[in-house]
Design brief:
With 340 residues, the chain is mainly alpha-helical. Helix content is 69%, strand content 0%.
């Protein structure tokens, strides 16, 4: 969700971002009906294995230009921070309007979607120092930190520091990622293997719901290992398995992602606006019990969630809405600094 405006867009990345923002919206919609269990829980867990690691990786990939232009770029940095505050304020105002009560605005405790905007601010701020470590040290170091951090029972939601540190490895991997690798892997054989692999993971998730329920905190990157009813070593192994699953699923999705301009390509240019607006809509739908109309069975709930997610993505990626949110990157910008 980092770069939103570029002088020369590449359809491949917009297609990938369009798919990923759809999974983000769908995942947040399904979060409110997971109590139904079964297929819904399986789809929810499946999405959560890869969707945020993938988005962080893509954000890291586009941070290359940030370093090339001579970081820090004040407009870029404070743009994320400003959007974080705007997002928090909008959710706060909505919560008061829906509840009819006075609620204290808390910018420090961050457990939902705004965390990602603050994380981008922190990651871009740290990137120049991380790059100086060198590729191998940066990647291996951030992976080790991600695996070992949850040992500390003190990790929590203060500025969502746990998620920022745990997902940092995907941002760093994205920064060093070379798209030429995907070009070489886009063969018919590997496309077939990718499809089979993604289906196999889906089947595995469906038949191992208890396993995912137990190790769910690892997918959300929001709790310490002490919240999992398993030994520390088992939790550490589960964390490594998640990293491998996430990276291989991302690779398979990238191999399958089309390179041409398609009817949904433009959605990838507006992921930032979709990301901010979708949670406001989701909270309204939950408040007015929208999903109660479709709770006869799991499939009607899933279909309704998919339709709503598609509508949100296609409507709020409209270029004028995108331009409005991108204005945040121009509020604090030294003369001559360009946002791309």
């Amino acid at each position: 969700m980092g770069q939103q405006v570029q002088t020369k867009r590449i359809a491949y990345w917009d297609n990938l971002k369009a798919f990923l923002i759809f999974t983000v919206v769908l995942g947040h919609l399904l979060l409110n009906v997971t109590y139904k269990g079964g297929v819904i829980n399986s789809l929810f867990d499946y999405i959560y294995i890869f969707h945020m690691p993938a988005f962080v990786l893509v954000s890291g990939y586009f941070s290359k230009s940030y370093i090339k232009k001579g970081a820090p770029q004040v407009g870029k940095l404070f743009g994320f921070l400003i959007l974080f505050v705007i997002f928090k304020v909008l959710l706060w105002l909505e919560a008061m309007a829906l509840s009819g009560k006075a609620i204290t605005l808390d910018l420090i405790y961050t457990s939902n979607a705004p965390w990602y905007l603050f994380a981008l601010f922190v990651w871009y701020l740290l990137l120049p120092a991380i790059v100086k470590l060198g590729k191998n040290v940066a990647i291996i170091g951030t992976i080790l930190v991600s695996v070992l951090l949850p040992i500390n029972e003190g990790v929590g939601y203060t500025f969502s520091s746990n998620r920022i540190i745990i997902f940092l490895m995907f941002f760093v991997i994205g920064y060093y990622f070379d798209y030429k690798i995907i070009e070489k892997l886009k063969t018919n054989l590997l496309r077939v293997i990718s499809v089979v692999y993604l289906i196999a993971v889906a089947v595995f998730v469906y038949f191992n719901q208890d396993l995912f329920a137990k190790f769910g905190p690892i997918l959300y990157a929001s709790h310490s290992y002490s919240s999992i009813k398993a030994s520390l070593w088992v939790s550490l192994i589960a964390k490594v398995v998640w990293i491998v699953l996430a990276m291989t699923m991302i690779l398979a999705i990238m191999i399958l992602c089309p390179k041409k301009n398609l009817f949904f390509t433009y959605v990838g240019r507006g992921t930032l606006s979709v990301f901010i607006i979708h949670l406001l809509i989701r909270d309204c739908l939950v408040h007015f019990k929208w999903f109660k109309w479709f709770d006869q069975n799991q499939y009607t709930l899933i279909i309704s969630a998919v339709v709503i997610a598609l509508i949100i993505c296609f409507v709020f990626a409209e270029k004028h809405i995108v331009k409005l949110f991108n204005g945040a990157f121009k509020i604090v910008k030294p003369k001559g600094e360009k946002y791309e």
